[in-house]
Amino acid sequence: MQKRCFIFSFLVYSMNTFAIPIQNLESMLPAGSQLSLSIYDTSSKKSILTLDDDILLPPASTLKMATAIATTLAFPDNFTFKTKVYQSGKNIIFKFGGDPTLTRGNIRKLLQTIKNAGIKNIKGDILLDGTVFSGYEQAIGWPWDILGVCYSAPSSAISLDNNCVQGSIYSDKKKKITRVFVPQHHPVSISSDVIAVSKEEQKEGLCELQLHYSQENVYKLSGCLAYRNAPLALQFAIQNPTKYAQDVLRAEIKNAGIRFKGQIKTGQLNKTAKLITTHSSEPRDALLKRMLKDSDNLVADNLMKMIGHHYYKKPGTFSNGAMAMKMILKEKAGIDLTTAVITDGSGLSRNNRITGAQLIEILSFFYTKKGEHLVSMLPVSGMDGTLKYRHSVRYPPLKESLKAKTGSLFGSHNLAGIFTNEKGHNLLVVQLVSNYHPLDTGEEIDPSQTPITRFEKALFQALHNSSLTLHSPE
After folding, report:
1. Is position 156 within any domain?
2. Do residue 377 and residue 437 come from a single domain?
3. Same domain as 247, residue 232
4. Do 336 and 357 belong to one domain?
């Protein structure tokens, strides 16, 4: 494909600043990489530079900016996810509202409220209603090999503890087999037959740590692990959120001193049920801040499903959530994502596709009155969120100069945000790097010296001192 590269107005640079051609920066990336770049000056309201910004590429987590805008336009600032408890005859019904931040502690408080209301003996069953969502809990395009880790936690109406369990694996040079630890209160089963080896043995045997799991929330680690002086922290995505919630509820009912001999099963709320108590999540903007600063996938995907539920008055799904997002962005913000491929709200799916030009449209909304509150939710270079330790922009003069959403997938390293240069001008910058596959030399590389880090550092340094150009001076 022939590259498309335009500069509509050159960046001004001082006499003692060397011009940096965009081609020089692009050559820092490994052979085979694909770069899409779009830069827009908010002061002059002109596009400064575009490079292949019409090509559909994987957005990764930069897609969360579209989810944030759609959420802002779909819901008032006092919107919350609600978890409600009802009584219907002898039965107790938990109506889950898709709250991605609901915790075991919240369940404990709901049970205490039930007990304080005089219900100390549940003579019937406990029904879990998660009908606010339906369909897949993992979006099409989520690779099978990452479904066991927490950033791929299933997007479910019945969500608890971020659908994630913390653990660790220990190796001892005096023992060949490792051991794994998970806090006892987590109702999951995790075992390990991982062999502890030296780094040399691991390399020679091409051995790696592998995770196997089942719908019963049973996990097994196998393979090998290089000896470590400290335990290796692990995170396991809950494979069956409903079973996990059932197991947690049964344990917490016992701890609360409530008598119960019935079943905990899925069911639906009926019209005769009486509301006992409600738990509300944090409001909309607190959820959006968590989603953008920490790149929380579960929050993003549950918000998108809730948008679909709200817009179409049907159970929320990945499919109707994506359709609703596109409709809302076009109707209320003038952002046309007709040609974009949106499969989830988090950007985790490998099927998602968006152009640099479309991301510039999304970023431009952040400069409107309806979107200005979102700017403070973006990670800040060298300060917080996913930009706190990003080597390319972590240190002066780039520290604190960039507010942006990052996005990384296999072969993709993206940034989309607002950059303030040394003259105080705000630039909207979209960087999409795809098919990024550096040559594996088998040696450890200093993270600050990787090709993508060197490229980003050079790019933003050139933007900082206004030295980026299309061609070198004659």
Report:
1. no
2. yes
3. no
4. yes
19 plus 123 within the same structural domain: no
pLDDT, one tens digit per residue, over 91-146 is: 999 999 999 999 999 999 999 999 999 999 999 999 999 999 999 999 999 999 99
Q: In sequence order, which residues have a C-beta less than 8 Å from that of residue 442 and are 6 or more positions away?
A: 203
- pTM listed for this prediction: 0.94
Question: Cβ atoms within 10 A of the Cβ of 225, count?
Answer: 20
Least confident of 130-134, 145-149, 327-331, 399-403: 145-149
| Given the residues 33, 36, 61, 401, the one annotated as active site | 61
Q: Are residues 444 and 318 in the same domain?
A: yes
What is the pLDDT, as a whole number, of residue 177? Answer: 87
Q: Convert the pLDDT of each residue in 158-217 to its tens digit.
A: 999 999 999 999 987 778 889 999 998 999 999 999 998 888 888 777 788 999 999 999
Catalytic site residue 36? no
The catalytic residue among 33, 64, 408, 466 is 64
Verify that 433 and 381 share a domain, yes or no: yes
Same domain, 321 and 384: yes
Across 57-62, average pLDDT: 98
Q: How many domains does the chain have?
A: 3
* Residue 171 a catalytic site member: no
Are 298 and 401 found together in one domain? yes
Residue-wise pLDDT for 406-460, tens only, equals 999 999 999 999 999 999 999 999 999 999 999 887 777 888 899 999 999 999 9
Catalytic-role residue among 295, 408, 434, 466: 295
64 is catalytic: yes
Look up the CATH number of the domain holding residue 117. 3.50.80.20
Strand partners, 6: 50
- Tell me the average pLDDT of the chain: 93
